[in-house]
Amino acid sequence: MYETNYTEVYEFVFLGLSTCRPVQHFLLAFSAVFCLTIVLGNTLVMITVTLDTHLHSPMYFLLGKLSFIDLCLSTLTVPKMMSDLYSGHNTISFQGCVMQIFVLHVLGGSEMVLLVAMALDRYVAICKPLHYLTIMSPQMCSLLLSGAWLIGIIHSVVQLTFVVHLPFCGPNEIDNFYCDLPWFIKLACSDTYSMEFMVTANSGFISLGTFSLLIISYILILFSVWKRPSGGLSKALSTLSAHISVVVLFFGPCIFVYMWPFPTVPVDKFLAIVDFLITPILNPAIYTLRNKDMKLAMRRLIGQLLGLRKISK
C-alpha cells in the first residue's frame, strides 16, 4: 500500500472560514489588523530583549524566543489565509501542504517545550533565588532552547514519516484555512485508523506531557511560596497568572483538536483562529504590559529611535 509515492492529488482546496463574500471581506480586514499587530508586537519584544542590556537575563532570553516562534506560527498560516480571502483562489500544492504541516509541528512542539523551560525559570527564580544565576546559566538557557527545537523537529518528523506516503486519489477539500494532520489523513484513499491513532498518540503525548509538567511546576511554586511566612502568595499568583493564561490559550486548542473524539468543524476553525491570531498577540501583551522592566526598556528603545530620527533631520 505504501510502495509508491504516486498520487493523483496534486493540490488541496481550502474551504476556508466562510463562503459569503461580505463575511470574507470582514475576516480579511480583521486578519490584516491582527497580523500587523502580531508582527509589530513580537518584533518589538525581540528587538527590545536583544538590544537592551538590562534585559539580558534568562527570563527575557526565553521570552524573546517565544515571540520568535509565535511570529513564525502566525506568518506560516495567516498570510496564506488573507491571500485566499482576497483572491478566492483557495488552493495549496501537495508539497506545500506537507511542508506547512512539517513546519507547524516543529514550531508547535518547540513552543510547548519552551513554555516548560519558562516555567522552570520561574520555579528557580521564586523557589531558589540564591541559586538562580547558577542554575539558569547561559549554557543552561542554550541547552533548553536547543532541546526545545530538537524535540519539535523529532515530533514533526516522526509523524510525517508515516503519513507522507499515503495514497491520495480524491476528494481533495480541506474544511479549514490551513493544512494539518487530522484533515490530511482523512483524505487518504486507504484505511487510516492506525495513522490517526499514531498522530493522536504522538501529539497527545507531547501536549499532555508538557501540560502536566507545567501544572506540576505551578503547584510546586505556589506550595513553596505558601509555606513561607512572608506572605508572598499573592505576588506569586500575580507573576504566574501571565504564564497560566498563555498556557491555557495555547494548550487548550491543541488538546481539543488532537484528542477530542468528536471533532466539530466550526469549533476547530474557531480554535485555529485563537492559536494563530489571538494567542500570538496576547503573549507579548501579557508578558510586557504587566512587566515593569519590559515597559521601561521599550520606552528607552523608542526614545533612542526618536532621538536618532531627530539627529538625522
Automatic annotation (TrEMBL):
It is found in: Cell membrane; Membrane. It is a multi-pass membrane protein. One of its GO terms (cellular component) is plasma membrane. One of its GO terms (molecular function) is olfactory receptor activity. The chain crosses the membrane at residues 26-47, 98-120, 141-162, 205-225, 237-258, 270-289. InterPro entries: GPCR_Rhodpsn, GPCR_Rhodpsn_7TM, Olfact_rcpt, Olfactory_Receptors. Keywords: Cell membrane, Disulfide bond, G-protein coupled receptor, Membrane, Olfaction, Receptor, Sensory transduction, Transducer, Transmembrane, Transmembrane helix. Pfam families: 7tm_4 (PF13853). Residues 41-287 form the G-protein coupled receptors family 1 profile domain. Signal peptide: none annotated. Belongs to the G-protein coupled receptor 1 family. This is Olfactory receptor. It comes from Sciurus carolinensis.
